[in-house]
Write a sequence for this structure.
């Protein structure tokens, strides 16, 4: 387990992967280039030596032109052949067309026959040149050509000059070159290692800074800001996204604090009122029955208000849970809206507010009937609460091939522009005094928005102060999880 953890630690590191990739990309061309240099140098030096030996042998061969190869090997030529063999540091054989050795600088095989692949190839006009790295010897076979009348001026091969020369000095030069190339490889590898390490370290710095800042956020510090200086385009995009997320977290944290403060205030206000009323009754002597009943009625109203706040809070808590808790069924939306308006009409009638229902077509959709009924009820009740006496509330139902629409319009007081972006915040009230008078808790639109979102729908507001407000709810006909 320890070895596996260590392996993952290194291979999972961005810095290590960049370093490893750069080393591979640098070492492969370096080693390949070094090998090409060594091969090129080895081939060049061998070709150079073979060319030198070939020229010397061809010069000697030119001096041996004649009709009889045996006559050409006189004392002077013997001395020259011995000098050539000594100069080349090797052994020289002279073989005639019958494969008989006419001359051997070692004197071991003279007048014997030599039938070898090299000799046969040379007599067949296939020159033979070879360097053996194992024995460190150069072998060269040069044909001896003599012009005869029978061949109409063509050259005929009458013999072969076979030279075997020591190539020890070639091996020394190749080894010296290999050492120099090895030194270059080591130096290049060290430079490559340093540059790869520096680049890998600096290239991961933006990611390291990002992790450091995220750890600060993890510790609860939401006042930090992710810096985009010195980063790449990719990291800048990620950092900008993190900054937006962090800004959202700050907003959520601020909303949470405001929510807790608002909840505390909203729950405390009825309790304070009840405490004042109760103390007045307790401290008062001979309190008249009418005043006693009035105070008790006020206390009962405050209890109802406290109960409504608690119920709305519980509803919001349930709305915040997963959408899988929706009880989806096929519901007739037209009938649902008509039942809601039937319940609200008695309240609207007390203020002479007319409620109008428009159904453009029958609509059946997959919804949670209870939750959707709560959302629509909130919109209609708000249209009544924040309306003028003698006004109107118009509710319409429509649909297309994909969505159904519920529009709630009223002739009420309207919502100011600066408040329209905040009306879905919990406990937010445009007119706090009037909201309390109408019994509002500031949670109705928050509940409505949550219900619409749980159904994968949307809600849109259009309002003009003094003229009225319109809410348009759009929900898919088919619910898809």
């Amino acid at each position: 387990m320890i070895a596996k953890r260590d392996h993952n630690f290194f291979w999972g590191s961005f810095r290590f992967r960049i370093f490893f990739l750069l080393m591979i990309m640098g070492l492969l061309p370096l080693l390949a280039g070094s090998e090409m240099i060594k091969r090129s140098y080895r081939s060049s030096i061998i070709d150079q030596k073979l060319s030198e030996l070939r020229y010397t042998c061809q010069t000697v061969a030119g001096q041996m032109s004649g009709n009889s190869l045996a006559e050409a090997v006189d004392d002077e030529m013997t001395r020259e052949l011995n000098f050539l063999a000594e100069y080349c540091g090797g052994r020289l054989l002279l073989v005639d067309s019958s494969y008989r050795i006419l001359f051997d600088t070692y004197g071991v095989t003279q007048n014997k026959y030599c039938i070898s692949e090299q000799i046969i190839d040379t007599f067949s006009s296939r020159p033979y040149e070879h360097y053996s790295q194992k024995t460190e010897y150069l072998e060269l076979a040069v044909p001896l050509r003599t012009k005869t009348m029978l061949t109409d001026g063509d050259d005929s091969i009458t013999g072969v000059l076979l030279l075997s020369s020591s190539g020890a000095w070639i091996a020394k030069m190749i080894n010296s070159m290999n050492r120099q190339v090895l030194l270059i490889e080591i130096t290049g590898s060290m430079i490559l290692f340093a540059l790869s390490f520096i680049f890998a370290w600096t290239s991961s710095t933006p990611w390291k800074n990002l992790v450091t800042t995220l750890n600060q956020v993890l510790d609860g510090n939401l006042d930090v800001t992710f810096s985009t200086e010195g980063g790449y385009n990719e990291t800048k995009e990620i950092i900008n996204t993190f900054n937006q997320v962090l800004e959202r977290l700050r907003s959520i944290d601020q909303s949470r604090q405001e929510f807790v403060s608002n909840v505390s205030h909203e729950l405390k206000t009825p309790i304070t009122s009840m405490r004042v009323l109760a103390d007045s009754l307790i401290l008062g002597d001979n309190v008249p029955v009418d005043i006693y009943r009035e105070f008790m009625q006020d206390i009962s109203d405050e209890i109802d208000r406290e109960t409504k706040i608690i119920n709305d809070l519980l509803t919001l808590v349930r709305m915040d849970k997963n959408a899988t808790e929706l009880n989806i069924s096929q519901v007739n939306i037209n009938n649902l809206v008509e039942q809601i308006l039937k319940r609200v009409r008695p309240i609207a009638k007390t203020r002479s507010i007319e409620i109008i229902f428009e159904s453009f077509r029958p609509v059946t959709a997959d919804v949670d009937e209870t939750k959707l009924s709560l959302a629509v009820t909130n919109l209609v009740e708000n249209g009544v609460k924040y309306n003028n006496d003698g006004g109107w509330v118009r509710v319409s139902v429509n649909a297309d091939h994909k969505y159904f629409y519920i529009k709630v319009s009223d002739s009420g007081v309207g919502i100011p522009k600066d408040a329209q972006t905040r009306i879905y915040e919990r406990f937010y009230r445009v007119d706090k005094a009037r909201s309390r008078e109408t019994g509002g808790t500031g949670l109705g639109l928050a509940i409505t928005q949550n219900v619409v979102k749980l159904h994968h729908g949307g809600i849109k507001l259009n309002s003009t102060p003094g003229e009225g407000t319109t809410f348009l709810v759009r929900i898919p006909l088919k619910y898809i999880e």
User: Anything to note?
Assistant: The chain is about 55% helix and 20% strand. The domain at 233-316 is CATH 1.10.287.130 (Helix Hairpins).
